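Tutorial, part two.
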Amino acid sequence: MLSTAPLPRAFFDRPSHEVAPDLLGRLIVHDGVAVRLTEVEAYGGPGEDPAAHTYRGRTARNAVMFGPPGHLYVYFTYGMHFCANLVCLAEGLGSAVLLRAGEVVGGAALARSRRAGRGAPAGDGGPRPVADRDLGRGPARLAVALGLLREHNGADAIWEGPPGAIPAVTRLTGAVPQAQEPPAMPAGSAVVLEGRPPEQAAIRSGPRTGISTAKDTPWRFWIDGDPTVSPYRAHVPRRRSSAATSVGEAPRS
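Running the prediction step on this input gives:
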């Protein structure tokens, strides 16, 4: 059973490392796709967490992280991927939780079409279809499945309408509607719902994935044994190839 009750803004008005484990099992819904979160990472505020985008203060890129809690912070990375976060703490404090992985529980066909060309390499019969567990397995894949792009940076993910189930989500996920239903969500809006949190004993924590600073901070949280959780990868420093340095170019640190 998935609950379609919206999470209140106060849920996010806490330190990110407290919000992160509580986000596991929650639903995030955007533009026809619903994902139950199975893996997240917390990032702290200015001067607190060297791995956070806000560590050195406010910039044009990270300004949304200093806004009200419950908004989406969507950024572009490695020149090819978008990643989505949910802003935590009160306005001006600059903290967020990265959405690393989740199970697509509604709109799988749409999510799969968005992932077309981004999955397994082509075989003799053309591109292999993306497996269900891989639709939202990893932060970039998750953003693609949900259709989140640069223009969604700053979008409010808190439902401010009347309490009760949201019809669009009820139809999408097959959840049992509650007694009172508000109007359907505006087209293109995002919302975070109660979903189905896991048992506390099923929640695991450990180092964050692929970062070079504060890499041992155990602020990555996931649901133990869930097949949609992404594999852990430690940071590996990039090195110049021998071909590059053989012609006199000094390697970069």
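The chain has one domain: 3-245. In part three we will examine how such features are distributed along the chain.
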